[in-house]
Amino acid sequence: MNSSLIIDLPTLPEEGQAFSGELDGSIFDLSENDATSAGPLEYDLWAQRFESELLLTGTVSAPFTFICVVTLRPFLKTIYLESAAIAVEITKSSQMDVTDALREEILLEFPVNPRCDEGDNPEPCEIDSRYLAVDKAADNDLSPPPRNENDDRWSALNDLPGLKDQP
């Protein structure tokens, strides 16, 4: 499996050329608290040069594991771009690495609030009623969140001038 998609401009025919394959999911390089790659980025693209731009059209997809914002459970969702159109400015080099352009196109399609009912295998997306504390009696089986008695992060605000309660 490749880690980049390189297009050799001098050998690219004027009418364009088809490219298909897979790129390693590690190209996404996501932060620890973000979604995680669950497989390779698959592409089936047509590349054609137009003066100072390289136009890539076709399909691009990649699976990810997201955390549902409602249930806080992980779920699988494939980002699939059926008719992607990606323009990349041609630099002076004879070879173009278009991996970052494909990566960015997929990342732009990430859901803002991922929900498990929108995944590849939709699941019921309902919050556990035990955690809805509004208008509920306190006789539930949930323990209060732990508090750190030595946490003085907010005490520094008391030392700032002009922030004390005024009479």
Secondary structure topology:
Elements lengths: L5 E3 L8 E7 L12 E2 L3 E10 L2 E15 L6 E16 L5 E3 L1 H9 L60
Antiparallel strand pairs: 1-7, 2-4, 3-5, 4-5, 5-6
- Point out poorly predicted stretches: none
- Percent strand equals 25-35%
Structural class: mainly beta
- How confident overall, as mean pLDDT? 85
Tell me about the largest β-sheet.
5 strands, antiparallel
Distance between the termini: 69 Å
Can you give a write-up of this model?
This protein has 167 residues and is mainly beta. The protein has a domain at 6-118. It contains one helix and seven strands; from the N terminus they run βββββββα. The chain has one helix spanning 99-107, and strands at 6-8, 17-23, 36-37, 41-50, 53-67, 74-89, 95-97. The strands form two sheets. Strands 2, 3, 4, 5 and 6 form a five-stranded antiparallel β-sheet that branches. Strands 1-7 form a two-stranded antiparallel ribbon. The longest helix is centred in the middle third of the chain and has 9 residues, at 99-107. It is elongated and about 70 Å long. The chain starts with 5 loop residues before the first strand and ends in a 60-residue tail after the last helix.
Q: What are the salient characteristics of this protein?
A:
five-stranded antiparallel sheet, 1 helix, mainly beta
Gist of the model:
This protein has 167 residues and is mainly beta. The chain has one helix and seven strands.
